[in-house]
Write a structure and sequence with these properties.
The structure is a homodimer of 270-residue chains. Helices cover 46% and strands 16% of the residues of chain A. By secondary structure, chain A is of the alpha/beta class. Chain A folds into two domains: 149 residues, 3-Layer(aba) Sandwich (Rossmann fold); 113 residues, Rossmann fold. In chain A, the strands form two sheets. The first copy, chain A, has a six-stranded parallel sheet with strand order 4-3-1-2-9-10, with helices on both faces. A four-stranded parallel sheet of chain A has the order 6-5-7-8, with helices on both faces. In chain A, helix 12 links the parallel strand 9 and strand 10. In chain A, helix 1 packs parallel to helix 11 and helix 5 crosses helix 11. The radius of gyration of chain A is 18 Å and the shape is globular. The first copy, chain A, starts with 5 loop residues before the first strand and ends in a 6-residue tail after the last strand. The mean pLDDT of chain A is 95. Chains A and B meet through helix 2, helix 8 and helix 9 of A and helix 2, helix 8 and helix 9 of B.
Chain lengths: 270, 270
Amino acid sequence: MDARPIGVFDSGVGGLTVFRSLEAALPGESFVYLGDTARVPYGTKSPETVGRYGVEAARFLRKQDVKMVIVACNTVSSVALDAVAAEAGVPVAGVIQPGARRAVALTRRGRIGVIGTRATIASEAYPRAILALREDVEVFSSPCPLFVPLAEEGWTDNEVARRTAETYLATLEAAGVDTLVLGCTHYPLLAGVIGEVMGGDVALVDSADAVASEVRERLSGDPRLAAPAAGAPAPSRFYVTDSPAPFAAVAERFLGRPVGLIGRAGIAGE
Amino acid sequence: MDARPIGVFDSGVGGLTVFRSLEAALPGESFVYLGDTARVPYGTKSPETVGRYGVEAARFLRKQDVKMVIVACNTVSSVALDAVAAEAGVPVAGVIQPGARRAVALTRRGRIGVIGTRATIASEAYPRAILALREDVEVFSSPCPLFVPLAEEGWTDNEVARRTAETYLATLEAAGVDTLVLGCTHYPLLAGVIGEVMGGDVALVDSADAVASEVRERLSGDPRLAAPAAGAPAPSRFYVTDSPAPFAAVAERFLGRPVGLIGRAGIAGE
């Protein structure tokens, strides 16, 4: 048994969708969440820079004495998971493998679509992971850079969101995909319009749920790593690299409860 | 006479609109451009973090031995111009004052609109600067966060851009503004749809042109600061904090010519 917290890392607030799924799936565990709000977004930056930020985050979480690191950010998971794992010194899980496995399990006609940031799509991490699991599928990818700012603006169900989704998703629709991986933590917030545009028979894969299920399986299969069954877990802690105040407001909206004190992590310089 | 280059600083590529105007207005001068592409955007971050980034940029430009620093970024100009000036050790010009002066000169009915990032609008730097120049005007402000990602995506003239502009600008239109300050370096790229939505009788103020005119006036009034009249200026130099390759492509599109070698500035950590 291991009462230490699980570290969750994201470029900003988007990873709170993953945090929420983890918390629901693992009520006995305690978490340390780190959002690099002073340097967000990562999806438009080079793999080298994203890798450096990921390593700095891993170093911070290691100092927080976490027993495991969940990389909630698809971009970091795509381009820098190995570098993060080398620095973290504890088991590390990204969102690509769980999302790929779920997509392969769900597809009926073997036509899988993937959407994400420019960096995630350019890395081809999802197609590689999916094709490694099953060779007889086709994978179609499309970057959707405007989905993140739309979600952050709260424009998730208006005409602009709908037109943007229509424009980005036209080629995936034409390709006849039956399953679509939402390869960015923000995209589940736009699941409504994405589902509308793709049609009701296309299965949407939310990597937040996928990674939470896999972490739960892993912990239940490894009692040394899971938290003690008795007693309530320590309250989760939150850290950001920019001012905590705006993060507190968004986090409360995401989680439906106040998150208490939010710390400042010095990894982006001070 | 002073043959040293003029430093131009922006959070990313947007400041190239200012660089272009400066280059056109001051053909005898040489420039050093710095874009903080590893940490862009600034407009969604706290004044404290933006201030720290601005000071780091000023320190970098100081080491490049510039004779003057132009802060092309509206967000930095709004929240951290004094901090940049204290660090730079040479004359510093932001874009707020020139934009405010031009707006006051252009307004016919004394009703001025200002659009910008959340940080720029929250700072109220433009209303303060405008009202300090002339008391009998009214200033109406509105943040337009999606304009930057739209411009970066190249969606400057489609239905999404038009609907977004209609949504953001509705209150300014209703307020009957006759002059609109484009208070962000990216916004001139959307001037077409902004002008369409606001109507042809609303004057648009581009701070790039405004700051270039003021710097030209300043140099022509101070011969010790201006470059020697004889001989071609040294080629301008470009520095970024993330990978140079994507910047090179955008810069070539903005400037209509290749920019040559692009350096890597270590101010965002290495």
